[in-house]
Amino acid sequence: MSSEGPQAPRPGAEGLSEPLRSRWSPSVYDDQHTLSRAEIDLLLAAAQWAPSAGNSQPWVFFVCERGSANHARLVARLSRGNSGWVPRASVVFVTAAQVRTGDEDDAPAYSDYALYDVGQAAAHLTLQARTMGLHAHQFAGFDHEGLASDLELPATHVLLTGVAVGMQGDPSTVDERTAARDHKARVRRGLDEIARAGAWQESWRPIRIGTPDEGQT
Ligand SMILES: Cc1cc2nc3c(=O)[nH]c(=O)nc-3n(C[C@H](O)[C@H](O)[C@H](O)COP(=O)(O)O)c2cc1C
């Protein structure tokens, strides 16, 4: 299998630069692969250097290396749909955002853009992973409340997502359902749908119309 996997790059994405071009979210990971401390630090540094509103840096990452206590905590809280593939990844970063300035429910918001900023930091981490020959797959399917309690998350923060990072694995080593996940078509709304050339009603008119899978000319 190519290191990019069967899903990348998609038609329409060929013009993107690496690591954007070959980024996608595989579900088959090599459960023997491990990351060094330096590699984990580098992934975290990519998130650390992401921009944020007023440089508020509202992010925290719980590092869950396969085999660690944090990993066991996470695995126990995964949704059924994610429990087959997430545990095999080398490391999972569980993202949290500081949303309040104090523990009280009515404490002032920490930043109006905290969720935006954590998403952006996570995106930077996933792209750094690609430059290191790794893949990343973000997920929200887990018991947020239960895991927040296990991780002793303070009331100033909320858990958002997991970012599973690792090396693509051999599909013959996983169950059929997990292997099949990596053959699902990747589709996107067209640029005419997601962009506006003027006010709301005025769609952007890309040179190539339609989604990548519609066989545009
Ligand atoms: C916030 C967020 C939550 C997601 N939750 C899940 C999830 O619980 N399980 C899963 O398998 N994938 C999950 N995904 C992955 C998306 O399904 C995936 O990114 C999307 O289908 C696009 O595919 P691509 O990343 O390969 O381009 C999530 C992605 C994001 C950004």
UniProtKB/TrEMBL annotation:
Keyword annotations for this protein, in alphabetical order, are: Oxidoreductase
Q: Which Gene3D superfamilies match?
A: NADH Oxidase
Annotated region (Disordered) at 1-23
The protein's matches in Pfam families, at most eight in alphabetical order, are given as: Nitroreductase
Q: Which residues form the Nitroreductase domain?
A: 20-74, 78-166
Q: Which InterPro entries match?
A: Nitroreductase, Nitroreductase-like
Q: Which GO terms describe its molecular function?
A: oxidoreductase activity
Protein family membership: Belongs to the nitroreductase family.
What protein is this chain from? Answer: Nitroreductase
| Naturally occurring in which organism (per UniProt) | Nocardioides piscis
